[in-house]
Specification:
Layout lengths: L5 H5 L4 E5 L3 H7 L4 H22 L3 E8 L7 H24 L2 E6 L7 H14 L5 E9 L1 H18 L4 H5 L3 H4 L13 E4 L18 E4 L9 H12 L10
Parallel strand pairs: 1-2, 1-5, 2-4, 3-4, 5-6
Helix pairs in contact: 2-3, 3-4, 4-5
Length: 245
């Protein structure tokens, strides 16, 4: 753990998002199956939630499983979904006790009914918490999110023709309400691990002015020290949003 500077504590991002990459490589380096990297990565998630609470971050989100990840081997997909269930069973008491609101966003129609029931139960249980909102993006992609938002808007115009002009005149902020992240602030900081320097179809609309940080650490090795170092790096950024200061 590193002690965060006064500057960092004054500039804590409201929303930090994590692209968790490198589980497979971590396992391969140790001669293990890929799934072992995923198992170890769960502890990194746990640690980052705790670090976010300590730092005063209000929203922490993680990219857990993309729409494209459905193309992975069936056994690996099954292991990942089973791991999701196990993690909820293991940590939900702690999350609730610590005042953490648990949210899952994505194309949940692709998840099986049993998993959706468990997710709904966890979300309902923690809905009243407000210390930190912890968001898991599951079966999610940025392009899917924008497309489903456009479809929702089109259906709204068809069902309520009298609102056509109002909808067509709306600005970009009005479009936000059709996204799955409606009501959630855009991420201030996105951190991707494992040395890859791309967003991989993640929060494409929402990350328009997000600060990006790419680190070499593999996700299973990403712990509180790394999380706090990311906050330190963010505090040094000069966010201008297209303006001149």
């Amino acid at each position: 753990m590193i002690d965060m500077s006064a500057e960092t504590m004054k500039n804590v991002p409201v929303h930090v998002s994590l692209i968790m990459d490198g589980n497979g490589r971590w396992a391969k380096e140790r001669g293990q199956e890929r799934v072992q990297g995923h198992f170890e990565g769960v502890e990194s998630v746990h640690v980052c939630v705790q670090a976010a609470v300590k730092a005063g971050v209000k929203y922490l989100s993680i990219f857990a499983f993309s729409e494209e990840n459905w193309n992975r081997p069936e056994a690996e997909v099954g292991s990942l979904m089973g791991l999701m269930v196990k993690a909820m069973a293991t940590y939900m008491d702690e999350l609730d006790r610590e005042g953490v609101k648990f949210v899952v966003l994505g194309n949940r129609a692709r998840l099986d009914d049993g998993l959706n029931r468990i997710i709904d139960s966890c979300m309902e249980r923690t809905a009243h918490n407000d210390r930190l909102t912890f968001i898991i993006f599951l079966s999610y992609s940025g392009k899917w999110d924008i497309l489903q938002a456009a479809k929702r808007m089109a259906v709204e115009i068809l069902e309520c023709p009298e609102r056509r002009d109002e909808i067509l005149d709306m600005d970009v902020n009005g479009f936000d309400r059709y996204l799955v992240t409606a009501g959630i602030p855009d991420p201030d900081l996105i951190v991707r691990t494992s040395g890859e320097s791309r967003l991989s179809n993640y929060l494409l609309w929402q990350s328009a002015y997000t600060e990006l940080l790419f680190v070499d650490t593999l996700w299973p090795d990403f712990r509180e020290k790394d999380f706090n170092e990311a906050l330190e790096a963010y505090a040094k950024r000069d966010r201008r949003y297209g303006k001149v200061k």
